[in-house]
Amino acid sequence: MRALTTTGAPRRVRAIATAELRLLVRNRTAMFTALALPLITVAGLSAIGFGENGDLPLGALVVTMLAGFTLLYVVYYNLVSAYVARREDLVLKRLRVGELTDAEILAGTALPSVVVAVTQVVLTAVVAALALGLDMPANALLVVVAVVGGVVMFVLLAAASTAFTRNVEMAQVSTLPVLFLCMGSLIFSGVVVPADSVPDAVQDVFQFVPLTPVLDLLQLGLTGRTADGDTVGFGASFSAAAFPLIIMGLWIVNGIAALRRWFRWEPRT
Amino acid sequence: MAEVVEVSDVRRSYGDYEAVRGVTFSVARGELFALLGTNGAGKTSTLEVVEGLARPSGGRIRVLGHDPYAGRASVRPRIGVMLQQGGFPADLTVTETAAMWAGTLTAPRPVAEALELVDLTHRAGVTVKQLSGGEKRRLDLALAVLGRPEVLFLDEPTTGLDPESRRNTWALVRTLLDDGVTVLLTTHYLDEAEELADRLAIMHRGRLVRTGTVAEVVASQPATVSFALPPSVPRERLPELAGALVVDDGNRVEVHTDTMQATLTGLLLWARDHDVELRELSARPASLEQAFLAVASSPEERDVEVAA
Ligand SMILES: Nc1ncnc2c1ncn2[C@@H]1O[C@H](COP(=O)(O)OP(=O)(O)O)[C@@H](O)[C@H]1O
Ligand SMILES: [Mg+2]
Which residues of B275-307 are buried (b: 16+ CB within 10 A; e: fewer)? Predict the structure, then answer.
């Protein structure tokens, strides 16, 4: 019985994800957001010399920026739109009268965007390694945790953000607070400007923004550089990771709580 | 256990508006039970809590022996649901939609078979947004039967269908009943309830006002005996007849009676003894429509409307 339910869940999630992938491919705006926007943004910012004076070598800088923008556009923004669109079309309500659990519905809907996002990060890392001199990561485990944790966090934030997004058009506005804060964290977390040129008060605030732990863990994992700008070895990188991991964990726990409390499965009547 | 669906004193509120106000009924295995009511009566609100979509604000529900909300995992693989409104992504084709749904079910029929059942095979490659309202309804029905359910919940299954599709849907529902499927459906079509229901309830303003077989529900209403007297016979000469006398203009007379046989016997014996020819004589048992209209225009409604 247990074996049956565990083999059942991946199959059900795959069914939803397949349908969702078809819908993604057929939606030009979403396709542009998913495939081109992060690349264009990072290429554009690099071209105007963004991050030249920062602490990171070019390869690590490009990978970190791309991971950040991918999480924001492909995972967060795209999924707020997708969840709201499915809710307003009563698709979520219909899925809920079937055998799927609530978590499977949310996961299946998110899966295509998540796969696109992770693939982009991996491909960018490969290109950076080949062309931009990205060294072997100082702690590969932290890089993986940063990406996986970041995905989970922004899927949850997207689902929670649907509570204050009435329709798909409104997603363009309702996502701005999270998008702006997280872009601020790209600027102030030592990725594009040196950590010691950012006022402490600003750094103190931005360390709590959801994207910051992802960026901190990526820098740490890729180059061994901490949020304060020091460089540490493999062993010490774990203790330097503790604080961003806690912040990430808190966002995930809060995201789940917000989802449970405020997520609506059908349009407001 | 013969009762597949048991609903007792169920209530459902939206904010401080109570849409379902203490509803009790049960559906036996292999039976079709119809909830009949005007728009806004509370049929959908009732059906949704029975399907386990929401928790009722009061009362107790069992579907196949389980609480449909808390025991969702045990109940869902055995039921099929057709909601009042579809909920399909507009950009998927009919086949893709059905295949998606099949992928979420434990033991689905082949997709092609389900589409064949509802006569949608020729539309298989068309996107949902290009379907007519009736075709979407049939796609919905296809998904509801895709998992070979033991219990089927249908919320207004034939609204928006053309007459031929309605007949086809009825035929499919009857086939499923013959296979032992239990069906709970809502409708505002009297003929649909008369055609399909083993038992039905008339719902009005959140309550079940009548419950029983069509015959039982109709029996709550008086039969009508009507005739015309010849001009030479004034109405005053009629004997005492069982039932209420409702006199039309002219010479037509209508009697509403709960004892049609006694009324007719009295009338016909009098006519024979006095050599009166009753013209246009007819005796009609009550109809479901009559029972329905009597409920829909009940004084309670007028009171509420005045108060509102
Ligand atoms: N989500 C909701 N929020 C508030 N009121 C609702 C909601 N759904 C239905 N109602 C109200 O509850 C009553 C019963 O509605 P419904 O169950 O849809 O009736 P029916 O299916 O018989 O037409 C109506 O007055 C309707 O306006
Ligand atoms: Mg309804």
Answer: ebebeeeebeebbbebbbebbeeeeeeeeeeee
